[in-house]
Amino acid sequence: MDRPSWAPADVDLDRPSVARVYDYYLGGSHNFAADRAFAEQVLKVMPAVAGLARSNRAFLRRAVRALAAQGVRQYLDLGSGIPTVGNVHEVLADAGVTDGRVVYVDHDPVAVAHSRAILAGVPGTAVVAGDLRSPAEVLAQPQVQGLIDFTQPVAFLLVAVLHFVPDEQRPADIVAGYAAAGVPGSHVVLSHAGLDRPLTPAEEEAWEMYRRSPTPLILRTNTQVEALLGDLTALPPGVVAPHAWRPAGDEEPPPEGNAIGCVAVARKD
Q1: What digits encode the pLDDT tens for the residues 149-185?
Q2: DSSP for 194-233?
Q3: What does the alpha-carbon distance between residue 178 and residue 148 come to, in Å, rounded to a whole number?
Q4: Helical packing angle, 33-45 and 48-69, nearest 10°
Q5: Distance CA 154, CA 150 (A)
Q6: How would residue 266 be classed by pLDDT, with cut points 50, 70 and 90?
Q7: How far is CA 99 from CA 49, 126, 156, 159, in A?
Q8: What order do you get walking across the sheet with 187-192 strand by strand?
């Protein structure tokens, strides 16, 4: 296939990427045939996945608006993906925040390249190529240090990413590594795939597709996700399904069936 102008030359077009598959679920346009084929395989057995992705993205928007209302102006979006559907800096602008600062971090070269293209010249934003699993390295990046004032509260966004981090890579330590860099009043925004019941046959089949993919999906229960927050304090309503976190009346209804995942916004005291 012809390489799109926005795709870096070293990207393998035949290898699906979780960031680009997620972009496809959200209705974005920055994905390749391999990403669409993988997504359609999942959607064939579990059509609700696209709605779940949109519900998760809607949670991110509500969480950012809620933190902005509390005066949080700095955001580190870790594993930000393809920023074509609901950018954090746009949510802040819609909320009337004129002094927001957002650093987008991802290891996917397409996500990084596209982010840099669309954010060129946008004040208060930066894009970092980095692996969220290494907090110290991400936090030390010049773009992060140059834009984020760590003497003021920061929101660390870990949305739909930690379920790709296996237990042996200690996801709780990743959360703690970022939280440790924030002053009191900083927050962690987290969403995670999983559930507190047995999988249905369709869910099992969809999960198996991810387990065979280059980036296997790890499902965790609500209790296990809550444990990832460590000594952070979850804001009401706690660890809940994405559509149940401070729902807004103007959003589309939650996807049919039980939610497959949970979310939380937690504060550092």
Answers
A1: 999 999 999 998 999 999 999 999 999 999 999 999 9
A2: --SSPPPHHHHHHHHHHHTSSS------HHHHHHHTTT-E
A3: 13
A4: 100
A5: 7
A6: very high
A7: 35, 14, 17, 23
A8: 125-129, 101-106, 74-78, 155-159, 187-192, 262-267, 233-234
**Do the Cβ atoms of 225 and 239 come closer than 8 Å?**
yes
Residue pair 184/268 in contact (Cβ under 8 Å)? The answer is yes
Q: Using alpha carbons, list the distances in angstroms from residue 180 to 153, 175, 177, 234.
A: 12, 9, 5, 16
DSSP 254: P
Residue 47: cis peptide before it, omega within 30 degrees of 0 = no
Could you tell me the CA-to-CA distances from 266 to 65, 148, 156, 169 in Å, in that order?
15, 19, 10, 22
Distance CA 157, CA 61 (A): 11
Closest listed residue to residue 87, CA positions, set 133, 31, 125, 32: 125
241 closest CA partner among 263, 222, 223 = 263
The residues near 83 (Cβ < 8 Å, ≥ 6 apart) are: 104, 111, 114, 115, 118, 119
H helix or E strand, kind and range, residue 130: none
Domain segments of the chain as ranges: 50-196+223-267
The CATH number given to 50-196+223-267 is 3.40.50.150
Helix (H) / strand (E) element for 126: namely strand 125-129
Q: What integer pLDDT is reported at residue 201 of this predicted model?
A: 84
Cα 190–Cα 193–Cα 194 angle in degrees, nearest 5: 120
pTM more than 0.85 = yes
Matching residue, tokens 């993988």: 38
- Side chain identity at 223, as an amino acid letter? T
